[in-house]
Inverse folding.
């Protein structure tokens, strides 16, 4: 009875999302669906600022599934003119915008139980979780991999030296020779993050270090 109540206090789309994590089996890394994603926001305050756009692309095996991508633009009342130059989205933009709740439904249906990849993942995860919280929902259940953390942890394996302690996405593009196409757009940064992730995996695999425990920090 208690379980029934807990499940039915949430909308169907949230229950369907949670169901993806029931009886989940660990699959080999090369058969796992990863989703690289990025958010562009009105600022960097995770409580006060809002998500302007979400870009995402899926990866399976050693390839990016370009046709399986997502790009969302959200309606918003909060506008910070200081961030316009970064994300190049303005309030009066002609792109088709949807409500925050509509974006949540589409995003959850897209990611399902995929392992999520992001650069500075804690920020993007927190922004999405704040969106969920505003609509009375729980937090994301997906496992996360931060490309910055992964590369920093892997650098001694890849390069056999310490290098530096912090890597921006631009730094990783330089280190891994990744073109910075559409940088500072959600879709562009999601694609760049996906390429950075795959290149890091390839180098780890070459050195026999590609394991779930290593990727997930366990």
């Amino acid at each position: 009875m208690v379980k029934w109540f807990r499940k039915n206090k949430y909308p169907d789309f949230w229950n369907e999302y949670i169901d993806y994590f029931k009886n989940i089996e660990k699959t080999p890394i090369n058969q796992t669906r990863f989703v690289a994603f990025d958010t562009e926001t009105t600022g960097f305050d995770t409580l006060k600022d809002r998500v302007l756009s979400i870009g995402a692309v899926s990866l399976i095996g050693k390839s990016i599934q370009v046709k399986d991508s997502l790009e969302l633009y959200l309606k918003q009342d909060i506008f910070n003119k200081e961030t316009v130059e970064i994300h190049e989205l303005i309030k009066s933009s002609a792109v088709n915008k949807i409500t925050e709740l509509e974006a949540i439904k589409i995003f959850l249906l897209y990611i399902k139980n995929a392992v999520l990849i992001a650069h500075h993942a804690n920020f993007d995860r927190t922004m999405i979780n704040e969106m969920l919280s505003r609509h009375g929902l729980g937090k994301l259940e997906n496992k996360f991999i931060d490309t910055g953390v992964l590369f920093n942890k892997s650098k001694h394996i890849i390069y056999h030296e310490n290098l530096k302690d912090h890597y921006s996405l631009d730094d990783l593009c330089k280190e891994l020779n990744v073109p910075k196409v559409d940088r500072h757009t959600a879709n562009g940064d999601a694609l760049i993050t996906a390429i950075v992730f795959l290149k890091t995996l390839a180098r780890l695999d070459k050195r026999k270090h590609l394991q779930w425990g290593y990727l997930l920090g366990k």
Notes: The two ends are 35 Å apart (CA to CA).
